[in-house]
Design goal:
Blueprint: E1 5-7, E2 10-12, H1 17-24, E3 27-28, H2 31-43, H3 50-53, E4 57-61, H4 63-71, E5 76-81, H5 93-106, E6 109-114, H6 116-122, H7 128-142, E7 152-156, H8 157-173, H9 177-184, H10 192-202, E8 211-217, H11 221-227, E9 240-244, H12 272-282, H13 291-297, H14 305-314, H15 318-330, H16 335-362, H17 365-372, H18 374-381
Parallel strand pairs: 5-6, 5-8, 6-7, 8-9
Antiparallel strand pairs: 1-2, 3-4, 4-9
Helix pairs in contact: 8-10, 12-16, 14-16, 17-18
The protein binds tryptophan (TRP).
């Protein structure tokens, strides 16, 4: 198996999370931190989120600071983002689903950055007009998650830049080329836009004076590690992150779900028949070669993609998932049966999402998030730093 590779732009291979935690300078979510969040959820009448219970969100940086701030009644805000890629797939939903939970939990402001500039600068063959198309499509997807309409601001860097430029300058003045190069591995061939981009991704951590918590994939943490070097000097708090693991791609046991081959990923826009076909054809199975062997030795849930997704996202009931695991490992449940469970869950989830997307388009919700909501309006009125 190929050894895992994780950078803010590329995740592939089999990932050793123990090693990654050390390399990225973060820590596991502690039992106390988890307990605080789960108890808060209970107190608020929210579900104890499956991502926390089952450990898909597993690591953090300075989460205790945010928890202390929350206990003391200090102000907290959330920040996340997505480089527009066009077709969002199942894996892309994870940070946003969890962000929605955290916003309900803390009842706080949320900023969602769409770095269309990043996408353009980092992908050699992309034109700005192509990025624009992908961005429109992703924006509508992200607006369909049900974020608090008055407390959420969704923005594209290329459009909002004038209003954040003074802050961007404060950041870029404090970030040296050597820091950026050491962190992101820039070379003499990197274009200068790429080298400056980290300032853009860090800037929203300073949109408010309170404590910034960032739910995201662990691959994005390097930006926020840099922020801590100068946040306090700028008169702000250090940012905190809460980080997810990567679920396997449909075709393999590790890595991000590959968006580069949409024919082999479960796209939010796929219909039920397509989902069924893709899962039956491509979903990596932990089943045995032959029926006879499977019945005799049982399947491997650790590498079975359908099981992994059921475990981390779709099957909330602990008793049910335990039973599925037992049946599969004992050989009484077959690979096709596991896939059938997965297909049903994905389709129920997607049809729900697609209905919300239609509703979102019809009611022009995106415009509220971007321009007309309370937080959005306040942000467009800002000029200084
Ligand atoms: N760089 C991220 C990506 O490639 C997008 C992004 C921008 C982001 N700001 C963020 C991700 C803040 C997490 C948190 O998708």
């Amino acid at each position: 198996m190929t050894e895992g590779k994780v950078t803010p732009w590329d995740v592939s291979g089999t990932i050793d999370y123990n090693k990654l935690i050390r390399e990225f300078g973060v820590e596991y979510i502690s039992a106390e931190q988890k307990q605080y969040l789960l108890e808060l959820a209970k107190a608020k009448g929210l579900q104890e989120h499956i991502f926390l219970r089952r450990g898909l969100f597993f690591a953090q940086m300075d989460l205790s600071e945010v928890i202390s701030a929350h206990k003391a009644g200090q102000s907290i805000f959330l920040y996340t983002g997505r480089a527009p890629g066009g077709s969002m797939h199942l894996g892309h939903l994870i940070p946003f689903l969890f962000t929605k939970f955290l916003q309900d939990l803390f009842d706080c402001n949320l900023y969602i950055q769409f770095p269309d500039d990043e996408k353009f600068l980092f992908k050699k063959d992309l034109t700005q007009s192509k990025v624009d198309d992908m961005c429109q499509s992703d924006l509508l997807d992200v607006a369909s998650f049900g974020f608090n309409i008055e407390k959420t601001f969704i923005f594209r860097n290329s459009e909002f830049i004038a209003h954040m430029y003074p802050l961007v300058l404060e950041v870029s003045k404090r970030l040296t080329f050597s820091q950026a190069r050491n962190t992101f591995g820039f070379t003499n061939d990197s274009n200068v836009g790429m080298i400056h981009y980290p300032a853009l991704q860090i800037t929203p951590t300073f949109f408010e004076r309170g404590f910034c918590l960032i739910p995201c994939g662990i691959d994005q943490n390097p930006y926020f590690l840099l922020q801590r070097d100068f946040a306090v000097k700028m008169g702000f708090h250090k940012n905190a992150t809460i980080l997810n693991k990567f679920l396997p791609s449909l075709t393999g046991p590790a890595g991000k779900m590959s968006a580069s081959d949409p024919s082999k990923a479960l796209l939010l826009s796929d219909d039920a028949a397509t989902i069924k076909k893709k899962i039956n054809k491509y979903a990596y199975s932990g089943g045995r070669e032959t029926l006879e062997e499977h019945r005799k030795f049982g399947g491997n849930t650790e590498i079975d993609v359908s099981f992994q997704w059921l475990y981390y996202l779709f099957e909330e009931d602990d008793m049910v998932i335990e039973q599925i695991k037992k049946n599969y490992e004992s050989g009484s449940m077959l690979s096709g049966e596991m896939k059938a469970l997965f297909i049903d869950k994905v389709n129920a989830f997607f049809s729900d999402f697609q209905a919300r997307r239609v509703q979102c388009r019809e009611t022009n919700l995106l415009r509220t998030y971007m321009y007309e909501g309370t937080l959005a309006k306040a942000m467009w009125e800002r000029t200084g730093h």
